[in-house]
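Now for one record:
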Amino acid sequence: MRIFIAYLVIMNIISFCLMAYDKSQAGQRKRRVPEKRLFGYAAFGGALGAWAGMYTWRHKTKHTSFVLGIPALLAVNAVLVYFIARGLNS
């Protein structure tokens, strides 16, 4: 169970930091983080970090795919975490 929690914490920290990094790169007109990568980290457990990063850094908040997609992935993450945690505790 500890490894699972550590995994989720790390994925969310990475997602949050990727949003900050991409915002910084956008402002400097440098090479950006691909949207597939941002969604990928969100899909694999980092949706809460991605969502927090979006609104902390005000990044990707005008993109419908992110405004709808990240909360949808957050809901999927929550359901999966529930069932995985339930399975690990039984």
Observations:
- Helices lie at 2-27, 35-56, 64-89.
- The radius of gyration is 14 Å.
